Every structure is written in C-alpha cells, then in structure tokens.
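Crash report, auto-generated. Payload:
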Amino acid sequence: MGSKNVRVLILKDGQILAKGLILSGFDQKAAAEKLFNEVLRKAGLSRDDIAHIVATGAGKDSAPYANSEISMVGADALGGNFLYPSVRTVIDVGAETSRAVRCNEEGKMVDFAINEKCAAGSGTFIEAMARALEVKLEEIGSLSLEAKKTISMNAQCTIFSESEVVSLIHEKASKADIARAIHDSIANRIASLARRLGIQRDVVLVGGVAKNVGFVSSLQKTLEVELLVPEEPEFVGALGAALSSLEGGGSGK
Amino acid sequence: MMKEYWRWPEYRRTVPGKDWTRAEVVTAGVDVGAVSSKAAIMVDGELYAYSIMRTGASSPDSANKAVNWALEGTGMKLDDVQYVVGTGYGRVNVPFADKAITEITCHARGANYIWGPTVRTILDMGGQDCKAIRCDEKGKVTAFLMNDKCAAGTGRGIEVIADLLSVPIEEVGPMSLKVEKEPEPVSSTCVVFAKSEAMGLLRKGWPKETVLASYCSAMASRIAELLKRVGVQEDFVITGGISKNVGIVKRLEDIIGVKALPMKKEFDPIIAGAIGAGLFARELYEKERKDA
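Recovered output after restart:
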C-alpha cells in the first residue's frame, strides 16, 4: 500500500501466480479492494483460496483484512534477496520515501536507513522536475542518457530545484543535460543514504523509480557499484510481504 | 492569465521632509535577494528613499531596476550616490557597487538602526532562506544560523500554500488567525509533502483558514527550532518578508515565549539588509576619503 500505488501479488508455493497495480487515489482502501478482486480473477481464485494475506507499505492500515503485516524495509529485504540470493543491500526508491536495507543470506533485514521527510530523495522529485522541464515522466530517464555535458545543480530542495531547472532552461542548457543533472542530483542523495548504511554487494535497486534508466545510470556512477534491477522493481515490496507469510516473518495482527 | 496569489505588492517610498541636495554623504545599499530586490538610499546616515521589487531572472538587472526605482522622483541620479554596497544572495552581481557585504552582517546593522542598540536577536525570514542572528549593541554579528537548503520555513513555502488555496499572500496570516481552535500542525516538514497533506485536509472538508492555521503553525515550529539553537536574547526583532505574516509571527512568539518588538511604521522590515548595506557604505566612503 504505497503512497502512490497499491500493488497486489499472489504467491503459490513460492511462485508468482498473478499480480496487479493501481493508483492509490483518494480512497486507497477502495482501490486496494478493487485491485485485490481483479488479481484474484486473473489467478482464477476466490478470496477463500488465499491462506494468508500480508500488508506492507505506508498505507498498510487500509487493508484491515490482512492476517499480518511487515515493515517496508523487511519486505524489501525478503523480496530483493528472493530474486537475487547474492543480494546484501536493497535500495528502494519509491514515490515518497527511499530506503536502503541491509539483509543477510536468508533475506532477513539486519539494518536500514530511510528518508521519508524530504521529497528531494524520492520519486516525487523527478516528477516535479519533469513537470518543470516539460518532459513526460516516462521519457525523462532515457532523455538524460543523451546528455553531452555534466551540469551540477546547487539546490537540494525540490521547491528550489524547480526554480533552478527553470533558470537552466533560460540559460539555454539542453533538456538532455538538465535531465542528467536532475538524476545526478537525486542519485547523490540516495547514495548518501545508502552510504550511511555501508554498501555491501550485491546491490539491488527496487521501487518504481528503478524503472527510470537515467536514474539507474546516475546512481550506478555515483555509487561506483553495479546495480541489479529486476524486471518489475515496483513489485518487490509486495513480493517480500507475500514471502513473509511463508517464513512466518510477518507479525500477527 | 491565472491570478498569481503569491504575488506581493512592489513599492517605493521617499521619506518626507528631507533635502538630499544639502547632504554631505549620499550612499546606497542594494540587497538582491533570491526573491526580492531592495534598494535603500541613505543621506548622511539616514534613510531617504527605498524600493522593494521582485528579483528577475538576472541579478544585475534587478539591482539596476531597484536602485533606479528608489531614486525615481527624487531628482537624484545614480552618479550622485557616492558609495554603494551590495548585499544579499546576488550581491556580487550588483554592477555599480563599490563593495559587497554578506546579508547577515547587513541585517544585523540595519536592525540596529531601525530598532536601536537594544536589539540582540534578529530573525530574518526571507524568500528562500531563514536566518537567526545574534548581535551586540553596535549591531555587530556575534553568532548566526541559517537554513537555505530547504523551502520549509521560508517565504517560498508560504507562496506555495497561498497558490494552492487561492488566497492572496498578504491575507494568509490574518486568515489563519480566524480559527476558534488551533488545529494540529501539518505533520510533513517538506513543502512538497505538506502541500499534498494540505490538499488532503481540504478534501476532508477543512475550511481554508483551518488549513492555513495548521500550515502556519508547522512553519512557526520549524523556525522556532532554528531560533532556539542560536538562542533568543531580548530585544528580539523580525526582518524579511515573512515578518508581515501575523499568522506565523504570533505562533512563533507563542512557541519561543518572547515577543518581537513591533514594526516601526516608517521602516519596512524587508529593507533592513539594504539599510545596513547603506550604512556600511557611508563608513567605507568616509574611511576611503580620510585615507586618500
């Protein structure tokens, strides 16, 4: 139950049976309900076939029917390590929070660092910058890969960065160069979050922002570490939550 | 064009009853801030005329415009000004300045001029930063702390909420005080998140004044933190644009338990930095003349 999207994933004997994603919108509870039914239909199951439901994410209280819940960092650790058993660090960049999680070889979370106070270290930052640059969110990542020049941004704050992007446009910097500056800027903040924890290989990048190739490239350069990126990084938290029911990792309600 | 609720009034003023042509020293202080540009023309160390306007895309242009507007109608030309000190975020970009001095130094000096030698703590709440400054009886800075990294607790944060609620920025403060019971402050620090939170409150059916109260209260506690870290010693004064927002000032005073000295009606607290710069200009001019 993320601040922007709700995701539902059904696991059967450790295999993903079906999954889906929907905008949280005004009424996250209703959105989740609707999506849950849709995913059940996709899997050809009814509610009674589900042995255990685990909720995670900022809005996990909007899923009162869940049998247990797990913290976002715990879910990240389990999900990331399940996809890549060699993973010891999971970096999750979502719409409004970012997290760096250290896990052991069993996928148990051992330490974490989190930012949920400042939009400048989350997907919201890129959304706001894409708006200021008048580029579609889906395109800003690939656009930044075409950058020829490195520009560094002075501002940290999302609000101040918006003005800085506008100034850069006035100074006739190319959109690609600005896009790269934007991704370098957020990559710096995510990197310092991850460094607070200490980077231990392998490192997997998850969360919706991991789909942004420009961000992946900037973060890789900043951290000087190869990042593993799953095909559908926005489902790793939901996957981890589902896995916790198998291992009894979630806490009962 | 959409109404721009954040837009505050720009204006200029000449202090009545002064004749600059008989003056010994005419100096100017130009404070090019991130959001507003201010020019103060000082005649023998007294404020003579000033202007306050929005900073444009270019700092040199903004400095030129501000000083020329302050001079408008006075018969004085920029050439008549013997020494100019630039200050503020864009201080190195004041093309006609003889020297640049940081705004912290200038604000302390300006506050000392406006309110007198009893001032010990100055809070300068500007468009894109917020500074807590301590000074001695001469207006010399003894300590300071500033936030220029985060829009929360700066004028920019108020502009965002004024726009969101379609409330003209000058009305944000008075409107926020119209609540009968003080609501919980907005829990998000970040302006971006606070904006979504405020939107949620509106959707829940909160009236505008309650949302503003909640927002102003969060902002006041954030600014109070900065002040507490530097320590508040009386007399306490507030300069900069947000000093005009009674909703924040009142709540801030309640939190820190200290009242700010009231505004002096002949001095707009936004121009404290420009006045300080103008006063330094006079000292520097006289020193150079003596040395020559």
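Post-recovery validation: The beta strands of chain A are 5-12, 15-23, 54-55, 68-69, 89-93, 98-103, 109-115, 203-206, 227-228, 251-252.
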